[in-house]
Write a structure and sequence with these properties.
Two copies of one chain form a homodimer. Chain A is an alpha/beta fold. Helices cover 45% and strands 13% of the residues of chain A. Chain A has two domains: 175 residues, Rossmann fold (3-Layer(aba) Sandwich), CATH 3.40.50; 56 residues. In chain A, strands 1, 2, 3, 4, 5 and 6 form a six-stranded parallel β-sheet that branches. In chain A, strand 1, helix 1 and strand 2 form a beta-alpha-beta unit. Chains A, B: This is Putative NADPH-quinone reductase. Chains A, B: InterPro entries: Flavodoxin_fold, Flavoprotein-like_sf, KefG/KefF. Chains A, B: Keywords: Oxidoreductase.
Chain lengths: 234, 234
């Protein structure tokens, strides 16, 4: 699976959250992921729509990554949508070039998650406010992924940042990023690849082995439970 | 009441619906309405946010008028939002400069109204897809008006265009554009001002008088019904 991350940000170099996200996937190969910074690629704002359409065809998962200003993307991404997602390409007669691909959102948001609900400060949920993107996925025949919303990045502690790093890597690379089973397998694989050289501290190898064993035990228990439930239904 | 119509369109001169809407309010005075064409005012895309904020302060009703491409505005209006609706002006500490004003949308839409519902071609309603603008109104303390959606303008017949002309004039000028009573009063006044000179055909004055009489009779009947209902509740 190849993922295209389309980033729109008026000043990506100065954004701590964008830089953190970029760094956390910098080890991935170009076979896995393409990072595409719109404002840097087109500083004059003139988009090469044929090049963009060719890029889209090469990838299976398309992510729109941007700060959620006024409940939508920066203007550059909207310009991209209007000029690249054309009739006969993305919709309409023979406009099936995006069909079957996935569309996801990576949103950086200044307020807290609790503010986005009825009665909260913003009054509406992220699901409601991102409906236009869900409609884009529907119109183009793409599968809409559950958005990855990064709330209040500057206030995150180290543990929360590590959690975000894993969530983001999985959102970019995992074939089913919303499945517990797939996320477990991914974690076991990532842990197995971790070695004493890449991590500081004593007894690291032992700790990692213990964590892997625990995750695998949990999975066996969950699988057994599922088996019981399936038998019950038969 | 003064209304500011902020129009965003990549090519407003070539848009038949935008030209129709502009013509239908061309008789209104500058005390009543200001038409503000964003792309023409800022051809280089550089927005004078202080001038824009001063313009907003001068008006009571703000309308965003644009083609509903990909379920949102053209990029220029989003740029305007991001740069003009700043902290301490539109929200945040002392950011109450738009409080109590009204925010409305005038959307030109290529498909039919029936396509915008669950199970329809687009899958989501206009209310759902315009949630981000409703959230802007909430955040800035503005009253959100029911959007005026113009579906499939090129397919409209003359009667439908006349209906749109009245709806749009009322949306721009009427203090309560959604109230039947106010719309009736507006219509009676507009008809009374109509004369044989401005309309072709024979017996025009007589026909207009008849229409006014009919509308006023209807209103009296509705008022009587309301009185009965009120008595019933007492």
């Amino acid at each position: 699976m190849r993922t295209l991350i389309i980033i729109s940000h008026p000043d990506v170099d100065e954004s701590s959250s964008q830089q953190f996200l970029l760094q956390s996937i910098s080890h991935l190969s170009s076979d896995q992921v393409t990072v595409h910074l719109l404002e840097k690629t087109y500083p004059d704002g003139v988009i090469d729509f044929e090049k963009e359409q060719a890029l889209l065809r090469l990838h299976d998962r398309i992510l729109f990554q941007f700060p959620f200003y006024w409940y939508s993307s920066p203007p550059m991404l909207k310009k991209w949508q209007d000029e690249v997602l054309t009739d006969h390409f993305a919709f309409g007669y023979r406009g099936n070039k995006l069909e079957g691909k996935e569309l996801g959102l990576v949103l950086s948001i200044g307020l807290a998650e609790k503010d986005y609900q009825a009665g909260g400060q913003e009054g509406f949920s992220i699901s409601e406010l991102t409906r236009p993107y869900q409609a884009v996925a529907k119109k183009t025949g793409m599968t809409y992924l559950k958005p990855l919303a990064v709330f209040q990045f500057p206030y995150k502690n180290e543990a929360e940042k590590m959690r975000l790093l894993i969530d983001y890597q999985q959102y970019v690379t995992l074939s089913k990023p919303d499945s517990l089973k797939y996320r477990e397998e991914w974690l076991v694989k990532a842990l197995a690849e971790t070695s004493e050289e890449t991590l500081p501290g004593e007894n690291v190898a032992f700790v990692i082995d213990q964590v892997i064993e625990r995750v695998e035990d949990n999975r066996m228990e969950l699988d057994e439970l599922r088996m019981h439930i399936d038998n019950y239904h038969d």
